[in-house]
Specification:
One of its GO terms (biological process) is ribosomal small subunit assembly. It holds the Pfam family Ribosomal_S19. This protein is an alpha+beta fold and about 90 residues long. The protein has one domain: 30s Ribosomal Protein S19, Chain A (2-Layer Sandwich), CATH 3.30.860.10. Helices cover about 20% and strands about 15% of the residues. The termini are far apart.
């Protein structure tokens, strides 16, 4: 049995709870996520999440092509290096 068979998709329970309350109250608040390993489910389509990258929260708007991926794939954690140019 491969690992993908017995290992289920992970998502925090409070994500579903806050999504449920937002749909009941017809609010479109952004939901904060600190765990980047949560899997994106079909019920998250159209919602905006704030994913923590180690320094700040980055906004991620969920589309239908993102289903099955993890939130961490859409937020960069490393700063891009910009070398100084030499002056003559």
């Amino acid at each position: 049995m491969t690992r993908a068979v017995w290992k289920k998709p992970f998502a925090k329970k409070n994500l579903f709870k806050s999504l449920f309350f937002n749909q009941i109250n017809k609010k479109s608040e952004t939901m904060l996520i600190r765990s980047r390993d949560c899997v994106i489910f079909p019920s998250f389509i159209g919602c905006t999440f704030s994913v923590y990258d180690g320094r700040k929260f980055a906004y991620v708007h969920v589309f239908d092509t993102m289903i099955g991926h993890k939130f961490g794939e859409f937020v960069t954690t490393r700063k891009r290096v910009a070398h100084k140019k030499k002056t003559k």
